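Write out the 3D structure for:
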Amino acid sequence: MFDVYRNGKRNFLVVSNGSPMPALYSSNKWRKSRARVLKVSDEIRAAVQERGYYLGSVRVAKKDLIHTECTVTDTTRGNL
């Protein structure tokens, strides 16, 4: 099992269950996820076994994307 922590900058940190938080990231404000994580991807599992943690970021949702304004050109006769 794994413990998942998240912070306000859309980052998440995955460590083995019961492992201490890495000293490099302990100064940031992390919140532990209440949900139990039983399964993670092979990439995350390999990183946790190798380094003891995995740091990733959450994708930006469509509603958070910045849309540019579209301008409509005048297509009446004589302006083409």
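The chain is about 10% helix and 20% strand.
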